[in-house]
Amino acid sequence: MANIFEITDKDLLGRIGKLYTPHGVVETPTVMPVINPNLMLIEPGEMGRYGAQMLITNSYIIYKSERWHDAAVKQGLHSMLGFNGPIMTDSGAFQLSIYGSVEVTNEEIVSFQRDIGSDIGVPLDIPTPPDVSLERAKEELEVTFSRLSAARKHAGDMLLAGPVQGSTYPELREEAARKVYEIGFDVYPLGAVVPLMEAYRYRELVDVIARSKMGLGPDAPVHLFGAGHPMMLALAVALGCDLFDSAAYALYAKDGRYLTVDGTYHLGSLQHLPCDCPVCASHTAKELIEMDENARARLLAEHNLYVTFAELRLIKQSIIDGDLMELVERRCRSHPRLLSGLKRMMDYSAHIEKFDPATKSAFFYLGPESCRRPEVIRHNSLLDNLEVKGSVLITTDRHADSTGFDEVFYVKAPFGVYPEALSETYPIGQSETVDTLEAEARDATLQNIAHFIESHKDAAFTFAYTQEWECPLISDISKHAKTIKL
User: Residue 33 contacts by C-beta under 8 Å, 6 or more apart in sequence?
Assistant: First the structure.
């Protein structure tokens, strides 16, 4: 497969990239607004005003429509919709997941997408829902593999997506991703995740994304199907997703729901609009509530798009600045289930560390999850390479008397120990913590100190600590080092 994806900036597993398509280059991460030709609150040609570079529509709806089928074939998809940028088409797998069947074959729908000029087409995969039996998940995955392989023969010059399925079985997702990547596609959507997001099952969503990424190559552009709420975009980007699609901007608007990065409000509950987009700057909540239903839905859809693309711009700037993790932590504290997703993400820190840039602008301690960040893991892994011998002092007080010691190490929460030579380097020299030592940071730091001592058995250690570090973990350190309370 030709390489159509160029990565320009990275932070965590997130990246800014260029996706090359027949109708232009798209900067990722980005959201593709979903266009339903039968229900358009905003015309496709207007989407660029809000920040959209690329759209997605459902080829099965067009295929089955007496109104749209012939128009798409004769005019081409782009002319029919009035949009000159890249357009991706789904195959009808969503309808398959809802209704149990569709009136089209895999070969027919792939050929139709090719014939109407789709930039990126999708085979008719089997979207296995969460929580089914392992046997069913495996059986349906084999059908998906077969259809993906067959789709290549009918795609022509159209770019082709290879969906990764596997239900809520992390090992199966990773296996599926590896096999789909071996077959070779242009884009790799992670399918059947909408039920997880609708139920706020972000912990399991993190597993799906992380394990799928572990099976894919690092050059694979990843599309998280059905994800477009601004509150979860930072988390998904940090895990390595590049493309998203959103019908929420329109569906929520028709239901009177107002998107923000902290969650969703019902317009009827708002007295003030907590946003400065053009819609919110020129209307009051009362005006929106009292206006005609169709006009209100249109304006809410506009707001929902504005806030979504504003969040994407902030995410991209955070990647460039190297502080995507700080943004993820802030966003995930807006909802307990998102916080569960963040905690689960930290379980993959050792994997993330392999791809995370070694130097950044700053490290901000924002809570217990910061103790397990990739930078902390990397710091302690590199310390294992140090040759440490003789009499060694580890102290929490930089003014402590070090007379008689061969080497001295200082302590920085939540990292653990560091030599003076690293005091000005990243992350030690650029880390900011709260003024009062939190119990979680203290315990994580002491565990890292204990690991350092146990990993360097040729040295005789003394750990000198101040009152704020007093806790039961000191007794674990005392098994391998002399401890002194200052």
Answer: 42, 47, 50, 52, 55, 56, 245, 246, 247, 249, 250, 305
262 annotated as a binding-site residue: no
280 is in an annotated binding site: yes
CA distance 190 to 118: 20
Asked if the bond preceding 427 is cis, omega within 30° of 0, the reply is yes
Domain boundary among 302, 320, 353: 353
**pLDDT on residue 96:** 67
- Residues involved in catalysis: 90
Kindly report the number of other CB atoms within 10 A of residue 380's CB atom: 18
Considering the domain architecture, whether residues 162 and 274 belong to the same structural domain is answered as yes
- Domain end (from 327, 353, 379): 353
Minimal CA–CA distance to 416: which of 390, 391, 386, 389? 386
Q: Based on the domain organization, do 232 and 366 belong to the same domain?
A: no
3-class secondary-structure state, position 16? strand
Q: Which domain holds residue 410?
A: 362-485
pLDDT at res. 99:
61
Q: What is the mean pLDDT of residues 369-381?
A: 93
Give the count of domains, the chain: 2
pLDDT digits (tens, 9 = 90+) for 28-72: 999 999 999 888 899 999 999 999 999 999 999 999 888 899 999
Say how far apart CA 166 and CA 209 lie, in whole Å. 11
274 & 405 share domain: no
Within this chain, do residues 267 and 368 fall inside the same structural domain, yes or no?
no
Confidence (pLDDT) at 361: 79
328 and 384 fall within a common domain: no
Is 371 flagged in the annotation as binding? no
Does 1 have pLDDT greater than 60?
no
In which band, very low, low, confident or very high, does the pLDDT at 97 lie, cut at 50, 70 and 90? low
| Residue 448 sits in the same domain as residue 328 | no
Q: Percent of the chain at pLDDT above 70?
A: 98
- List pLDDT tens digits, range 246-273: 899 999 999 999 999 999 999 999 999 9
Is 275 assigned a ligand-binding role in the annotation?
yes
Identify whether residues 117 and 168 lie together within a single domain.
yes
* Spatial CA neighbour of 56 closest among 104, 118, 116: 118
User: Per the annotation, does 460 bind a ligand?
Assistant: no
431 band by pLDDT with thresholds 50, 70 and 90 = confident
Torsion of the alpha carbons at 375, 380, 382 and 388, rounded to the nearest 10? 150
Mean pLDDT of 212-239: 96
Residues 389, 281 share a domain: no
Q: What is the CATH number for 265?
A: 3.20.20.105
The partner residues of 34 in beta bridges, in order of sequence, read 56
